[in-house]
Amino acid sequence: MKSLKMATLCAVAALALNVSDASAENLQQALSMAYGNNPTLNAARAELRAIDENVSQALSGYRPTVTGSGSATRQWTSIEQLSGPSKRNETNSTSLGVQVNQILFRGMRTKNGVKQAEASVRAARATLENTEQTILFNVATAYMDVLRDQAILELRKQNVSFLREQVRSAKDRFAVGETISTDVAQAEARLSGAISQVNFAKANLSSSRANYQLLVGKKPGKLSAGYAVDKLFPRKLSGAIGAALSEHPTIRASQHNVDAAQMAVKVAQGELMPTVSLQGTANRSWSDQSGGGTSSRDTTTNSAQITGSISVPLYQGGRVSSQVRQAKETLGQRRIQLDLARDQVRSNVISSWGVLEAAVPQITAAQAQVEASRLALRGVIEERGVGQRTTLDVLNSQGELIDARISLVTAQRDRIVASYRIASAIGRLSAQKLNLRVTHYNPKKHYNQVRDKWFGLRTPDGR
After folding, report:
1. Is the pLDDT assigned to residue 14 strictly greater than 60?
2. Engineered SS bond to 393: which of 19, 385, 389, 400, CB 3.0-4.6 Å?
């Protein structure tokens, strides 16, 4: 672990190019901005809030339903008689009523439906945690990509400056007869290739900056050095695997999906059980009847009724039986997915751990390569001055030095990203674990606001 910390310090030092300004944006700030602004994360939160409403809908099975009714009728009747005057009757009637239905028993479907909805909410919360981890990991990766590509661009520019000097030197020596035109051509060819590599590095940096803006919500400014998060995971692979199997949100989401599928089976089976309900109605009606324009009768009628009923399903054409079998197959699928989630999490931890372990010696080897290439270039330049080396030797040595420096920058970036990858693979890459200075999203707040809400069309935030 000491070697890991030393490698981290080296990474910080190498990637901190032109970031000494105290106003530079740091990785924690980028993660904090993404936590609040990332559209994918905000969409996942909105999806969870929508799933919260399933519990309220399931609980409505315990509550009565109230229906109001009203009607108004006007009727005309005309009777023509051969031996007398015609008769004309008019009747005006109005009625208002209220009906209340209360389910007393429906095969435990309401109870099991509530449990199913609650399990689905817990699964969605775990899925949201996994989405948060994915976003934070992607932000850390994008942040380090920008730093890496900035460093590579700077190295490419330095290489162009060095090669311009070599072209100028070769031309001067050719002018006084100390070298041949081939040296000049070789130096110019290398310079043209280096300029092309600068343009390619600029394109890579632009792509990294665009990805950063997509994730964080703003363009990257001056970025300070990144940092590893080794403190978030155990020091041994066995401990990391054990922690992942018990903590990773993907596994917890799969476990809750199994619970929801079990309740779905019971809900489907409840369709085969009796339904007991109680119905109450109250009506008031008014009628006004007149005939021939000579008489009028006004009547008011009040009525009320309470009815208890029981419905026993005998045969539904095989529909319910099929639904039960279907729910059982879905339950089996959810159990298989749970086993698959455990296997995937274990695999991700092992592969991420391997990347981290490989990154440390890569940094050490790259540092040694850079130092050796630097000494070699210095020696080749001195030897060329006394005629023991050619311009081509200098160009080759410079190319090896630039490649070694780029390899070091890449290895240092990979080292830091690997630490975030392991933390994410275990399930500990959260805003709380990272100590981000943000207002943490509390999924239980909205759930508690809507769970027992009997009426109201507005969402808790006023929409």
Report:
1. no
2. 389
Pairing relation of β-strands 275-291 and 65-79? unpaired
For residue 13, pLDDT beyond 50: no
Sole residue written with tokens 């100590």: 435
User: 238-262 burial, b for 16+ CB within 10 Å, e for fewer?
Assistant: eebbebbbeebbbbbbbbbbbbbbb
* DSSP result, 340-359: HHHHHHHHHHHHHHHHHHHH
Give strand pairing partners of 99.
Answer: 67, 281
| DSSP-derived 3-state class of residue 84 | coil
> In the sheet that 295-311 helps form, which strands lie side by side, from edge to edge?
65-79, 87-105, 275-291, 295-311
Average pLDDT in the 89-102 region?
Answer: 89
Q: 2-66+107-272+319-450 has which CATH code?
A: 1.20.1600.10
Question: What span, in angstroms and rounded, lies between the C-alpha atoms of 425 and 429?
Answer: 8
What digits encode the pLDDT tens for the residues 132-149?
999 999 999 999 999 999
Q: If you search the block for the tokens 């509550």, which residue do you land on?
A: 63
Q: What's the mean pLDDT in 301-324?
A: 91
**Sequence spans of domains, the chain:** 2-66+107-272+319-450
- Which residue in 48, 55, 49, 66 sits closest to 110, CA to CA? 55
Distances (CA, A) of 23 to 36, 118, 222, 223: 21, 46, 8, 9
- 0.90 surpassed by pTM: no
